[in-house]
Specification:
Blueprint: E1 10-15, E2 21-26, E3 32-37, E4 45-46, E5 49-56, H1 57-66, H2 71-74, E6 78-81, H3 84-93, H4 121-133
Antiparallel strand pairs: 1-5, 1-6, 2-3, 4-5
Length: about 140
């Protein structure tokens, strides 16, 4: 891994894990190099993937090589691509990838139901009010 880079050797990394990842490698001097990639809770979301632009292509190629069996790689929860249009396309194609770490919908899960198995209107109102007051909480913005 070299420490020099320019726009032609940079990639975009997509990551569907909620909080992203710290990716660590040691450089030729034995020093740890860390790249932090955004996850699904980031502000730039496409197809449920947090997108991190301008990451060293050399770093990512080496990281993918060393971590080919990492569950996030195997399950398509993280990917790299050299240009933005293609990265956007891949993210949209893989929008249905499920990590198992997605937010739970309390309405669909029956968590707001009363003792008769019906949605408790008072609890639903409180839930919707909380959503309105904090629209970014648990969101999945898809371009």
């Amino acid at each position: 891994m070299s420490d020099t880079s320019n726009a032609s050797n940079m990639v975009i990394v997509g990551c569907k894990l909620p909080n992203g990842l710290h990716l660590d490698l040691k450089n030729k001097d034995g020093e740890k190099v860390r790249v932090t990639i955004a996850g699904a809770n980031a502000s730039r979301i496409i197809g449920g993937y947090g997108m991190t632009p301008n990451v060293s292509a050399e770093f990512m190629a080496e990281w993918f090589k060393r971590n080919a069996k990492h569950p996030a790689v195997v399950n398509k929860e993280i990917f790299i691509h050299g240009d933005e249009a293609s990265a956007r396309s891949i993210a949209k194609e893989h929008a249905e990838v499920v990590t198992g770490l997605e937010a739970i919908d309390p309405v669909a899960r029956g968590m707001l139901n009363n003792e008769h198995g019906e949605v408790d209107k008072k609890e639903l109102r409180k839930f919707r009010q909380a959503q309105a007051e904090n629209p970014r909480a648990g969101r999945q913005i898809v371009e």
